[in-house]
Amino acid sequence: MSISLDHAVSIQTRLASAPVAGELTTDVDITGVPSNVDRYGLILGDIQAAVQKAAGTFISIRWEGWTTLDENASRPRLACRYTIFVWSRTVRDPASLAPDDVMEAIMRRLWQWRPDGQTVLGEAKVGNGGIVPDKSFLVYDCEVIIPTSI
């Protein structure tokens, strides 16, 4: 695989694992929420199947491209940009996870995370997000930037 897909899979693995000692805890347990790395943009079937199940929530991770971390550095500091989406029903079953709570748990799981165990310079940056307009689903998103060169 490529660095961009390796990091996307690392994000997926991170979200499927529970916090350990010293990490930020989450208000909801997202370890059982189904997720997918969106490699080709063909995940609508996965989303529909997962949202119809009891949990009613699905997480997708999409690579958005590269970015420069510091335009004034003496050498390029590059990073990969990802958008993480939380998909849910427009009318939520009270027993299912609230999508905004799931998004907050995702942001806490990725906050100051070092995917390669590197220094602070290799730390994931959690960015802005919000509600994404969609006719069929309630969708939240957030941006995550992971440095690829330190």
Would you write up a description of this structure?
The protein has 150 residues and is α+β, with helices and mostly antiparallel strands. It has 3 helices and 5 strands; from the N terminus they run αβαββαββ. It has a 5-stranded mixed β-sheet. The two termini are 20 Å apart. The model has no long low-confidence stretch (mean pLDDT 86).
Features:
alpha+beta; five-stranded mixed sheet; globular
| Envelope shape | globular
Strand content: 25-35%
String of helices and strands? HEHEEHEE
Q: Please give the order of strands in the largest beta sheet.
A: 1-2-3-5-4
Quaternary assembly: single chain
N→C terminal distance: 20 Å
Q: List segments where confidence is low: pLDDT < 50 over at least 5 consecutive residues.
A: none
Beta-strand segment tally? 5
Concise structural overview:
With 150 residues, this protein is α+β, with helices and mostly antiparallel strands.
Topology:
Blueprint: H1 3-15, E1 35-38, H2 44-52, E2 57-68, E3 78-88, H3 99-110, E4 125-132, E5 138-147
Parallel strand pairs: 1-2
Antiparallel strand pairs: 2-3, 3-5, 4-5
